[in-house]
Amino acid sequence: MYYTYILYSESTDRYYTGYTSDLEDRLRHHNSGATKTTRHGIPWKIVYYEIYSTKHDAIVREREIKKKRSRKYITYLISRFSSSR
Is the confidence at residue 84, as pLDDT, over 90? Predict the structure, then answer.
């Protein structure tokens, strides 16, 4: 199982999109400061994720989200995700 995820940092008011096969481990990795691009935003929290059966599908979806380059689109995804939980 693979995940496409969006993290949010309250301290920087920024989102980060990625993919992984282990969502909780990846969050720990980001919050440990090991990832240069997210080090400045610690602590991060998972605000959205989608589940895929293949790595390829998760990567394709990550690229789709990043290609939009739209905070409005990301907040739309998160609002739909939050209301469905």
Answer: no
Segment (H or E) for 2: strand 2-9
Q: What is the pTM for the complete model shown?
A: 0.93
Give residue-wise pLDDT tens across range 45-54: 999 999 999 9
Using an 8 Å Cβ cutoff, are 21 and 1 in contact? Answer: yes
How far is it, in rounded angstroms, from Cα 33 to Cα 69? 24
User: Fold for domain 2-83?
Assistant: GIY-YIG endonuclease (3.40.1440)
